[in-house]
Request: fold
Amino acid sequence: MIPSRPDPVGPLPEQPLVDPLVDRAFIGVLVRDFYSRVRADPRLGPIFASEIKGDWEPHLEKMTDFWCSVIMKDGSYSGRPVPAHLKLKQVRDGDFDIWLGHFQRTAAERCPPEIAAVFVDRAERIARSLRLAMFFRLERPATAAG
Ligand code: HEM
Reply:
């Protein structure tokens, strides 16, 4: 028997969320609020500052494309998040909890609860897969002897 999905949140992740409130303008505001919190964070701020020098607008537009694609399935994002994060050598596993904390608070303050729950569910799923790509290793841990 194929197990059922545990506690689905909103539409299935591969389906669009259709809601009159949620359009590109709404997502653009959410993204900008979120990144202003991330930039002010004592741990995450310096990581972003060392990667994004100068104009933040291209990054904010790319992230708006990304969230429009994740939530509305409008196909506006066509990048590769895994390699973009693999090259960030300063990031630790625990940084994802800080990132998700800011994301949850931004969504809770900006969205009705059922919409916030969908954004947070998708962020948690993607964070999980980025963490696996960045930090999960099958081989034996390195020893002092090499
Ligand atoms: C500790 C957590 C994280 C850190 C420190 C981090 C940091 C960064 C940085 C520095 C960039 C490069 C910016 C640029 O050059 O444009 C980036 C890109 C990106 N991040 Fe994250 N990120 C984190 C978690 C996440 C999560 C959880 C998601 C998704 C839910 C995400 C989605 C993206 C996407 C879509 C891009 C653009 C990739 C591309 O197409 O170039 N990030 N991130």
